[in-house]
Amino acid sequence: MKKILIVEDEKNIARFLELELRHEKFEVTVCYDGRQGLEQALAQQFDCILLDVMLPALNGIEVCRRIRKQSDVPILLLTARDAVMDRVAGLDAGADDYIVKPFAIEELLARIRSIFRRVKSSDAQEQAKLTVRDIEMDTQAYEVFLRGERLELTRTEFDLLKLLMWNKNIVCTRERILEQVWGYDSEVETNVVDVYIRHLRTKLVTDGVPYIETVRGVGYVMRE
Fold first, then answer.
1. Contact 51/62 with Cβ under 8 angstroms?
2. Tell me: the pLDDT tens digits for 54-102?
């Protein structure tokens, strides 16, 4: 049985989510403030965390940021804010996805299933060592090295880089990246891809030609 942590200070919403997820056969833990949620997230193994952004004690963005320093557990933000900068802040903090309140429970369940499909697909893929220029990836050890030095990547960053390395010299559209890394295809969410490409570029430091090339209006590619 998969375990889900809900961190939500509005008790009516938290209870509703708990009942719906238990009905779907998930094991559910509920916390009502950010500090308690962070403690639970780091103390136990969860398969997914539903994390509200506006929380007492410690806001959801900071909780997400601190979890990411120690864990690659999938995090889905629950937010009442629909502004682009708020969404980008959550993704920059390491969230895998977000959903804007009010939302239909069917959409939330679909997002959770997409996260689990992505994780399962990533785990089931053929083990291999990949190389593009001076980047080396060991998919079995879950490690990436740049010029011999190990890089710290989140799971989503790792999966995105793996897709680009497997398809070196082939342009991957934003839609294809969404489908294969996040497990769904939505034009509304394509900015998620751009945020994570920026994350990778920050970590893949180069003095010469960038490792990830933008093909304007299409997507991204890594070339030899």
1. no
2. 999 999 999 999 999 888 899 999 987 666 677 778 888 889 888 888 8
Q: What are phi and psi of 154, to 5 degrees?
A: -75, 170
Cα 217 to chain centroid distance, Å, stands at 24
Sequence-ordered list of residues with C-beta below 8 angstroms from that of 8, at least 6 positions apart, any chain: 14, 17, 30, 31, 32, 50, 52, 55, 78
Among candidates 42, 100, 75, which has minimal Cα distance to 154?
75
